[in-house]
Amino acid sequence: xxxxxxxxxxxxxxxxxxxxxxxxxxxxxxxxxxxxxxxxxxxxxxxxxxxxxxxxxxxxxxxxxxxxxxxxxxxxxxxxxxxxxxxxxxxxxxxxxxxxxxxxxxxxxxxxxxxxxxxxxxxxxxxxxxxxxxxxxxxxxxxxxxxxxxxxxxxxxxxxxxxxxxxxxxxxxxxxxxxxxxxxxxxxxxxxxxxxxxxxxxxxxxxxxxxxxxxxxxxxxxxxxxxxxxxxxxxxxxxxxxxxxxxxxxxxxxxxxxxxxxxxxxxxxxxxxxxxxxxxxxxxxxxxxxxxxxxxxxxxxxxxxxxxxxxxxxxxxxxxxxxxxxxxxxxxxxxxxxxxxxxxxxxxxxxxxxxxxxxxxxxxxxxxxxxxxxxxxxxxxxxxxxxxxxxxxxxxxxxxxxxxxxxxxxxxxxxxxxxxxxxxxxxxxxxxxxxxxxxxxxx
Length: 443
Known about the structure:
This protein is mainly β. It has one helix and 30 strands. The protein has three domains: 8-190, Immunoglobulin-like, CATH 2.60.40; 200-287, Neocarzinostatin-like (Immunoglobulin-like), CATH 2.60.40.230; 309-442, Immunoglobulin-like, CATH 2.60.40. The relative contact order is 0.11.
């Protein structure tokens, strides 16, 4: 008696079992790679367990992966974005049946070692190209982030990953590193964030005849450092210099003889040449021109005084767009414009940074790291400096740069900084109003 053909529902279930087993046929062979160079592909032995419904045993093979980071030289407290890309999964389509697009959702972890240890959770979108029957599974990428907590070299290695499929059935295929840790794919070097330059100087007099000495005192220099006192004529250093040594508290005291009649200010700095990060000033100083005035003539004199570095903002409140309960998503808005005026004269640059508190509301908190911005900065025509917008990304409680202008031979001007804001509101955040405080600092 001839057997009857399987009923459609039975065929459907068996097909689902096969299509859900995303890591069944494996690529084998080849030696494992040794320690990798930064941002290199690495190979590691992997054990993938097909869904139980497939009836297939675990399979061992080789995964090729690469990890990249958003910053290879971060400061402690910075947030580093991590991208874990499986270039070649240890799997291929085990059936002759084509798999449709957008059924695979990957997740996994990147492993930290060295100065900082732990795991970085990463996840990818539900997105893949169609996979022909018996063809290799496509490459996929997963992203996540971590906060740097220690100085030194931090290496990231690929860790375990999982392929979730949503086609007829919801199924998982976990793939684990057989001999952890896998080879390092990228290494970053973390350091402590530099503190603000608090060096300062004061003059015993703000003017004098050519050849007169002026007393220069200062504070917050590096104890024991050799400090150069120098005259400045605009953005250029004159030939009038002297050296002093900072005492155990970082204080300096010395005298500088000023001969150059073009002198407009006096600076003090550590090192062989002027560096705004290691110096103070310029403090205004005028050489009194004692050249005799010819008969029947009049000497005319004017003074340009250095101003200050300041900022003003167009408002102190920003209303972000509302989001729907259950859906969550991006709550967006624009930062009130901030005007920076650098009327100091000299060579120093400036930096405008911002940090935000957690957003508090009815019973829950939206973390500060959920606020992102895309900065922009415009320079007013005629300004000696050109401002630079900070990088787009998270603001967080540690802070980020909104705009800056570098030190140069001549600096100053007027600038307008602003940013597009986006707060990631988790789904099912209780209805209500949530507020955080964004603090801006100009230095």
